[in-house]
Design goal:
Layout (H helix, E strand, L loop, with lengths): L5 H40 L12 H5 L2 H35 L4 H46 L1 H5 L12 H11 L4 H5 L6 H11 L11 H4 L18 H6 L5 H12 L1 H15 L8 E5 L22 H15 L3 E5 L2 H8 L18 E4 L1 H11 L1 H6 L3 E4 L6 H4 L1 H7 L15 E3 L8 E2 L9 H10 L4 E5 L10 H8 L3 E4 L16 E2 L5 H10 L2 E4 L8 H7 L3 E11 L16 E3 L2 H7 L4 E4 L4 H13 L12 H14 L20 E3 L6 E3 L17 E4 L6 H7 L3 E2 L4 H4 L2 H6 L6 E5 L6 E3 L4 E5 L14 E8 L14
Parallel strand pairs: 1-2, 1-3, 3-4, 4-5, 5-6, 7-8, 7-10, 8-9, 10-11, 11-13, 18-20
Antiparallel strand pairs: 11-12, 14-15, 15-16, 16-21, 17-21, 19-20, 19-21
Helix pairs in contact: 1-3, 1-4, 3-4, 6-8, 11-13, 12-25, 14-15
Length: 790
Amino acid sequence: MITVNPDGKIMIRRCLVTLRPFRLFVLGIGFFTLCFLMTSLGGQFSTRRLGDSPFTIRTEVLGGPESRGVLRKMSDLLELMVKRMDMLARLENSSELHRAASDTHLAADRLSPGAGLMERIQAIAQNVSDIAVKVDQILRHSMLLHTKVSEGRQDQCEAPSDPKFPDCPGKVEWMRARWTSDPCYAFFGVDGTECSFLIYLSEVEWFCPPLPWRNQTRAQMAPKPLPRVQSVFRSNLSHLLELMGSGKESLIFMKKRTKRLTSQWATAAQRLARKLGDIQRDQKQILVHIGFLTEESGDVFSPRVLKGGPLGEMVQWADILAALYVLGHSLRVTVSLKELQSNLGVPPGRGNCPLTMPLPFDLIYTDYHGLQQMKQHMGLSFKKYRCRIRVIDTFGTEPAYNHEEYATLHGYRTNWGYWNLNPKQFMTMFPHTPDNSFMGFVSEELNETEKQLIKGGKASNMAVVYGKETSIWKGKEKFLAILNKYMEIHGTVYYESQRPPEVPAFVKNHGLLPQPEFQQLLRKAKLFIGFGFPYEGPAPLEAIANGCVFLQSRFSPPHSSLNHEFFRGKPTSREVFSQHPYAENFIGKPHVWTVDYNNSEEFEAAIKAIMKTQVDPYLPYEYTCQGMLERIHAYIQHQDFCAAPGPTLPGAHASQSPFVLAPNATHLEWARNASLAPGAWPPTRSLRAWLAAPGRTCSDACLDHGLICEPSFFPFLNSRDAFLKLQVPCDSTEWEMHHLYPALAQPGQECYLQKEPLLFSCAGASTKYQRLCPCRDFRKGQVALCQGCL
């Protein structure tokens, strides 16, 4: 009889207790295996009616490869359990040996229960493996019988050779090999059969023709569109504040801004309603997805709201939401990927399948982050519905970067471009890229009483520096020293405990100020000075609206993606000649002074001149609440990127040209007796066409004549006749894909016409070409709209 000390008995009991859950688990595995086999085999030999499932031979796969796969997985799982238990046993044995080297014989005793259990698990694993093989044989025989019985129906599930659906055979082949790569296919009923492939590819996607034996009425049924409701201007924004959500500092900032501007939005709505009169406006269903605020995109902005981070994007999004809501449209707002998927109807899976329902939104406003998220999760529906998307794009996207094939071939591909959208679907913060739509934002508008109070309360020698982050102040000691000779300098640089060393001691730093307090500071100051960064933000317009003069640096050479890190990778070649080009070009002196900061004498002379200059508060109409409402109303009412594009290819244009040469023989105009192009917006009556000088962009050529380049007019000029009407004979005419066409090649008289509509562009120039440029007039204070655009 073997005697065991008390410690050994305790360890044996502990081992048995530890292993008892494994026994229960193995028992459960066995029971589950039995149930699964009964279900699978029962399903194989049960009779089924044809109407039981939209896929007539679905049981073949559900009981076939999937069953065998599950059995194999169960066998693998049991083998894995053996390995894990063996490892645990070895660790336990090793631990016990270290604790009691003298009791080595007990370690072997302690392993014996586990060893026996492992043998039983191995036996079960072998049994499951044997069962899997037998089930495989039974199912193969069953499928063979089923195939013979249903041979007639199988013939109807062969991939058709239909010239109207040339991609169908290839898609069926792909489905055979890859249908299990994404669970979304099974969600739509794909089960590995030819019929399920064809049903999916004809009814969910659109690569194959409908199967004649399918219930076409049921397959083609779509929910009836909701009856159109007329939109009504709103003045109470409390519901919008609820729609915007909470929980993020960025959303809190946006809601505070919206609440502060409520009265101005209400007043603007009343004015625009009177201006538009009885125009009927359909209420649109609009989804607003702010992609850069989602956790999946990193949401780098929210944590920096209270630490001096950039607020321009949040200012613009807050104003977009307010404008859409005030115009009377129905909004959904999402700031998470989960919310986006739910609102779009994304099926479960990895994003390869179309949406589960027709897109319930007329328009979607998002950013580049949101655009990428939608492409990843909408499958083929993204291509189908992308014409409804509007992309908020601060710095703009030029056509050469937007066209994927062209960008790849000609070196314009970046991380942010190549979406193949209509360039007008990109909406910018400032009107710097005519190829895109100008969205903008708003600044607070002062009434006459407030303007007079500001003029009376201005300090003649007070300056506020544009820049909340310490990095902006580095290396600016020379400018600050000159400015300090004439003015008291104030800053709003963020800091936590200690004063930032980059801010000189003679600067009165207020720290990061809430927006109302910052506005009050601007109302006292004479000068708002920028040091070259940030580019094109809203703050200079707010300063000018509060009666400040804005002083900024001129860039020589101009900054662009070719020579400056900040712009590198952005989908534009635009050259920025100053910190705020809009303020320089559209406002100018006396409100805006642009000087060479590298010239100390010019810088100092500008400060002296500004101190003697008196200015009134000024805000361009397009940055008022009414101006933004008017602009977005026009876009929603007239921009339709889902309609078929106009004629651009040879032989497609009208035989009789609608153009006439202007009396001074310098440009083309739309003939008065010619009918307007139906559906064209802006109306073609505003078109003026000029032949630009070599090396000039169409944007610059139009501005030279006090006009704006209008890319939507390019198709009307894309013909040999347009050159002839300008008295430019073409020795030859070629159609090519190039973002500078239509153009006249120099030297020689070769005329080049545009082959790809998405490449019509106001941007871009070459000394080799004289570009044929479409221009239009614009409303005073509203550069985005022509005289007849409302």
